[in-house]
Each structure stands twice: as C-alpha cells, then as structure tokens.
Amino acid sequence: MQSGAIRGAVFALALGVIALLVFLYLTRVYVAADPVRMAQRMRLSFGLGGVIAGVALFVAGRGGFGLPLLVVGIGLLMTWFRRGSVEGDENRGPSARGEDLKGDPGPRSHHPARQSAMTEEEAYKVLGLDPGAGADEVRRAHRALMQKLHPDRGGSDWLASRINQAKDVLIRKSR
C-alpha cells in the first residue's frame, strides 16, 4: 500500500515540475511578445471562439445566449480584418503612429516621407541639446534617445534614422 502512495506522490511532484516549467516558458513568451501582434491574435481567437460558441448555442436552442456571443465574435473578427489592412504602419514614421520626435503620442501631423538634409539647428532639436553642445554631450544624448526609441524597443525606423542623422551632422561639425 505504501508503494502506491509513494508512486502517487512522485507522479504529483513530476506533474508539478512540468506545470512550473510550462508556466515559466509561457511567461517568457508573453514578456517578449509584441503587444500589437498579441492584440491581433486575441481579436482573432476570441472572435472565432465567439462565433463558434454563438452558433453552437443558437443551434442548441439557446439563442438568448448564442446571439450576443455571435455578434461580439463577428465584431472582433471585423476589427481583426480592418487592422490587417493597415498593417505596416509601424515603419512609416511619426505621421502613421502619431508620435513626435521624443516618441510621445501626439496629434497626427504630416511629416515628409523623404529624408532631407538636416541642419545643425534641427539636429540639436532632435537630440534635445542646446546649440554648441560638445561631441560627448551629443553622443550621450544620442545613446539615451536610441535606448528609448530604437525599433527593437517600440520606436520606429524613421525616428531611429533621424536620431542617427542628427548625431552624424553634429559629430561632423565638431571635427
């Protein structure tokens, strides 16, 4: 009788360890996930789930429960389809994402798609420095902005290129 209890305890322990490892893996995936893509997947999953559950309840004679689920599911699927048509806005620059040079959300304004030559005055503004700042200050400001606004951290390619261009203009000037 004791060996059966020991086997049960070992099985429960092994199951607990496996559950912990799965939980840690899923936590790691969740933390590293792109929030935009995660929201899209949730819209799709909950939309399909709502439609399937709504139809199943409606067919089973529970239309009072099925109809609202069906409507919500269709609504989520419509937002998922609509979001797919504007995919790629992340890399179009501030006008597409509604942010200014500091990465703050703001009113959507038109910014030219072309990258024109940057003046020293613009470069100082982009890096948030006073005119006449030294090369070390320029490098520090560039590094701080890139840590916040790098495309891998949620910034856009356009912002990163403007920050790099500003640093290049001011470093060339100080030589």
Automatic annotation (TrEMBL):
GO terms for cellular component: membrane. Coiled coil: none annotated. Keywords: Membrane, Transmembrane, Transmembrane helix. It is a single-pass membrane protein. Residues 122-175 form the J domain. Residues 87-107 have a biased composition (Basic and acidic residues). SMART domains: DnaJ (SM00271). The chain crosses the membrane at residues 6-30, 42-59. PROSITE patterns: DNAJ_2 (PS50076). Gene3D superfamilies: DnaJ domain. This is J domain-containing protein. It comes from Terrihabitans soli.
